[in-house]
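A sample copied in:

***
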Amino acid sequence: MNAPPLPREQLEFRLLNEFQHDFPLDPAPFATLARQLDSDEATVLATLRRLQETGAISRIGAVFAPRSVGESTLAALAVPPERLDTVAALINAHAGVNHNYEREHRYNLWFVATAADASALDALLAEIRDETGLQPIALPLIEEYHIDLGFDLLHGGKKSAPPTRSCLPRETSATDRRLIAALQPGLPLVSRPYACLAASAGIEEAALLARLREWLDEGCIKRFGVVVRHHELGFRANAMVVFDVPDAEVAGIGRRLAREPEVTLCYRRARHLPEWSANLYCMVHGRSRAEVEEVVQRLRTIAGYPAQALFSRRRFKQCGARYFDAAAAG
């Protein structure tokens, strides 16, 4: 006898929480999900479309390991408050900008910029400087201690996942660039999404699926699955917590902080002296500011150094990284 269908709220929660990793890499993934959830493909697709329309899901797709393909950097601007909306809109217009937030600091606009290579990234930052009349400080990644393994919606904080290999920077073939460009917006919510991506990339569906499995095995893709938006799911407070610690100590402290359950990201970035001296970063999300502040105080104690907590005020943009332009990827 068939099991009764899941209630709508339970189905939504399981889709959001259980499939941030290990999304099916088979020709009909939503039918596979439906079997695992005692549902049907049409209901699963309709639920995911609704979650995407309401903003709970950013996309379903690949989270690439930093520096495995293309180039990226965190960057910041000190924007006069009266110009903030205008400057944010200018930055949002660039496809290479995938996150853009207002934060509580003199450097009040923080964005992530990505490009196919270092020269293209430099050109993007120069264009932003020329458009806004403001000089971004670029803070490239040096070492990661915990990067985007998903978010536990039941308890808050990061999801645990099997360790992945460290993926070294690589040269990408024309075929790989087309595939990455097709992947960037996320899976289309149709019965055979990989066939659609394969057609866009000009390869066979079986070859596309084999390449995704290879990238996952190598650690080039950190995870493949549902990418959620914290704010829409009730985690309305977040802070980027930054430390200025001696370079000789940063790796040890970073690894200790990365083990804390509420730390969803932790990495070392280059300083930008004299404007910016921080070199160690943690992201903390919570349901309230007080909840996050309590975690921040614990992180200060663990680190043994002062920290600044740059709380988010507004999200101007959040989407998947864009390394390659689809029209020029070949």
